[in-house]
Amino acid sequence: MSANAVTIPLDYDGYVYVGHAQGVFEPETGRKVPYYNMFVISPARNSENSDYHASGFRADKLKCIGPDVWDGLNYGDRIRIFCDPRGRVIQAAIDQ
Which distant-in-sequence residues (6+ apart) come within 8 Å of 77 by Cβ? Predict the structure, then answer.
């Protein structure tokens, strides 16, 4: 994977892969749990009400089931994501 400049098309309405992280955390003493996160950029849904306004892009951290989710992805790839019932990404595919 290359960390070169990433171009995010203004008209793309999906996710753009920009990175990932994995490691372990300790929710209680003596017990370590692995974590896998994917970082994506997506359009902020232009929605507005009296308390909220969003436009442009948003950055999200998505929980993944394992590191194989981002295997083969390059920074800047347009992707589609598929989640399990718990909201974790189980697969990411290149969106053409």
Answer: 16, 17, 94
For 3, list phi and psi in degrees, rounded to 5. Answer: -100, 30
| Other Cβ atoms within 10 Å of 88 Cβ, number | 14
Q: Which two tokens stand for residue 39?
A: 């970082």
pTM for the model stands at 0.83
Nearest CA to 58 out of 47, 70, 45 is that of: 45
Per the CB < 8 A criterion, the answer to whether 1 and 58 are in contact is no
Residue the block writes with tokens 């909220």: 52
pLDDT tens-digit map of 8-19: 777 888 999 999
Q: Mind listing the pLDDT tens digit for each residue in 46-77?
A: 667 778 888 888 899 999 999 999 999 999 99
Contact 62, 40 (CB under 8 A): yes
Rounded Cα distance, 56 and 77, in Å = 19
